[in-house]
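Collaborator request, handled under Task 6.
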Amino acid sequence: MEQLKKEPKTKKVLDKPSIYSFTLLELEKWLKEQGEPKFRSGQIFEWLYTKRVTTFEDMTNLSKELREKLANEFLFTTLKEVVKQTSQDGTIKFLFELYDGNSIETVLMRHDYGNSICVTSQCGCRLGCTFCASTLGGLKRNLEAGEIVEQVVHVQRALDETDERVSSIVVMGIGEPFDNYDELMNFLRIVNHDKGLNIGARHITVSTSGIVPKIYEFADEGMQINFAVSLHAPNTEIRSRLMPVNRAFPLPKLMDSIRYYIKKTGRRVTFEYGLFGGVNDQIEHAVELAELIKDIKCHVNLIPVNYVPERDYVRTPREQIFAFEKELKARGINVTIRREQGHDIDAACGQLRAKERKEETR
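Structure tokens returned to the collaborator:
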């Protein structure tokens, strides 16, 4: 089987880790090594995620000595807000600069049911999907768990000003989450923990483009996290053209791993299906898609593609989108059309980064 290339190395590294990268258990272990009682970990988590302080000095129920140890051992923040775009529909897109000068995007989306945040898991992406701005310039590096967590904390602080809360998280921003699996899992454990941000597992969704071995591993984790697969094609020929990852992990093997996931967890899978004019959006494609997934416990989310200047795909006409949806419904497939948000700002994933930080996306 063809394997993905190894992650490129970055020259600049942190001299100490982010406090946000530590799970509660990891923090307990560190505290024990310092001769501190483990209950301090819960206090630190409360300061970080409930009170959302911005310095270790603010953690006033810790001893001065412990606060000094924390400041010497950990960084408090590694993200710097560079750009903040606000859409007329309330969507907010953030561009953050990382410690090494690279940048990432985070998006806050407002729904009737609450505030959802879309987080980034990698700086860039190596999978080369031909419709995505995130892959422009390739992969710079994986994000640490703390850099993913900080995205949520930063947005939550912004919502604190209006007494609002992040109610759900989708890991669908820049990068392939399963290509940064260990850091992803630590992120999920931190934001899901009741002493952390306490976001319910069923209010968190992880999306993959199809890293088959990690789908099996994720199924075995025993978490109740929602699971989505970027499918975007009804057959292996079209999928390979849109998504080179299909050459490493072909569609039949992907479908086998999804069946394993459903059997192991009992949970439904969401298929993300972007509609690209004249490529995968005809009625015959809807028929083929329905045949592909007819025996799978799933939901199809049709996505009208956002135009990306660096890509040449065209938007599927509105009437064709509805015709595609109708055909799937007629064949018994549970399907919806994704509501568009942030259409008046740089809405496509990776588009703001590509526009503002051209040196990263050449």
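The cover message to the collaborator said: "The mean pLDDT is 90. The two ends are 30 Å apart (CA to CA). Please let us know whether this matches your experimental observations."
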